[in-house]
Design brief:
Layout (H helix, E strand, L loop, with lengths): L1 E5 L2 E3 L7 E2 L2 E2 L6 E3 L1 H15 L5 E8 L3 H11 L3 E6 L11 H15 L3 E5 L10 H9 L3 E11 L2 E8 L2 E7 L4 E5 L11 H7 L4 E5 L31 H10 L6
Parallel strand pairs: 1-6, 1-8, 6-7, 7-13, 8-12, 9-12
Antiparallel strand pairs: 2-5, 3-4, 9-10, 10-11
Helix pairs in contact: 2-5, 3-4
């Protein structure tokens, strides 16, 4: 089995996002691998370690700094990387999921991948569209929000999260697309020896325009605004005062 895993570079989850000029400020902001992509990488590497996969290829789309994110995936255990170079913003402002899915389609066809693992969503745009779009373009089976993945004699047995619990789906046909949720695994930390080894692993660079994909955004983001500041809390002196304020000021009680 050959696995293709998506690796997105996003504003680090611990960084407070700043808005400037009607958009999210990216200059001088720490960026790292999307947490859900880390889970996808971990699952792909585990499948290889358990002899269910022959090769794991990590793919990242974006500016030259994406090479750093790919090196992290290689240090976690991926065999090689593909960097699709573009200077377009990848946080939905310019490069959007439908175009990303078309790029992945080209790479899947080029690499002859059997399984495509991606995070369930990026923490920048929170769309969750790329996996389902890709499955549609490939006319391939998909399982979203995967919480457990097992290889059996019929293919893949995947447990997925739903609003009412979980459901189990048997995937019998490949290529297949799986989007990874939080419960699937806990990503490993890259060790120093593996970080050093990752520097020698191959990373292929492809210009996005060379793939023949229309990258034009289908949706225009007019403006991004920060939420209004939360009002300062107060300390009440008694239960009666609290009830009075809830009833007469907040008007949440009748």
């Amino acid at each position: 089995m050959k696995i293709l895993v998506g690796v997105k570079r996003v504003v680090d989850y611990a960084v407070k996002v700043r808005v400037a000029g009607g958009t999210v400020e990216l200059n001088n902001v720490k960026q790292s691998m999307n947490p859900f992509c880390e889970i996808a990488v971990e699952e792909a590497v585990r499948l290889k370690e358990n002899k269910h996969a022959d090769e794991v290829v990590a793919v990242s789309i974006g500016p030259k700094q994406c090479t750093e994110t790919l090196r992290t995936a290689l240090a976690m255990g991926c065999d090689r990387g593909i960097h699709v170079m573009t200077d377009m913003r990848t946080d939905y402002m310019q490069l959007q999921p439908f175009a990303v899915a078309h790029i992945f389609q080209k790479l899947v066809e080029k690499e002859q991948s059997d399984l495509i693992l991606v995070g369930k969503q990026g923490i920048d745009s929170d769309c969750g569209h790329t996996g389902p779009f890709l499955a549609g373009l490939l006319n391939a089976p998909q399982v979203t929000f995967a919480a457990k993945l097992q290889v059996n004699d019929k293919g893949l047995l995947v447990e997925r999260e739903t609003d009412s619990g979980t459901e189990t789906i048997q995937v019998k046909q490949f290529p297949a697309v799986v989007t990874c949720d939080l419960r699937l695994n806990e990503p490993r930390y890259a060790t120093l020896p593996n970080i050093m080894k990752a520097k020698k692993k191959p990373v292929e660079t492809i210009k996005a325009e060379d793939l023949g994909v229309d990258l034009t955004p289908l949706v225009e983001v007019v403006e991004v605004m920060e939420p209004p500041p939360r009002k300062e809390g107060i300390i009440v002196g008694s239960v009666d005062e609290l009830i009075d304020k809830l009833r007469n000021e907040a008007k949440v009680l009748k």
